[in-house]
Write a structure and sequence with these properties.
99 residues; mainly alpha; 54% helix
Length: 99
């Protein structure tokens, strides 16, 4: 795809643009958008968290908990010497064939 208008819209000015690479790199951001949309729908009581299959619930909770851990770690000063216990492994195996 070398349509100049499309490339400009996507803010891509590279002659070697690869749609496949672009999609691979944008997947993480797209997943985050979908997670935010799910949170909004749950907050507005338009869907219930328990409406999702158990495997989806676990994956969503694991990702939310991981983001909270990252947020908490980034809020701590770098030279903090407080002894905090190691967080238990909360992430589920991501390659389960339930999708």
């Amino acid at each position: 795809m070398k349509n100049k208008e499309v490339l400009e819209f996507l803010s891509i000015n590279d002659e070697n643009f690869s749609a496949e690479e672009f999609l691979d790199h944008s997947d993480v951001g797209t997943v985050r958008i979908i997670e935010d949309m799910i949170d909004i729908l749950i907050d507005k009581n338009l869907i219930m968290f328990t409406d999702f299959p158990l495997a989806s619930q676990k994956k969503l909770l694991s990702r939310k908990l991981a983001r909270n851990i990252i947020r908490a770690e980034s809020a701590q000063p770098e030279n903090s010497t407080t002894d905090t216990p190691q967080a238990p492994s909360i992430l589920i195996e991501d390659d389960e064939p339930w999708i």
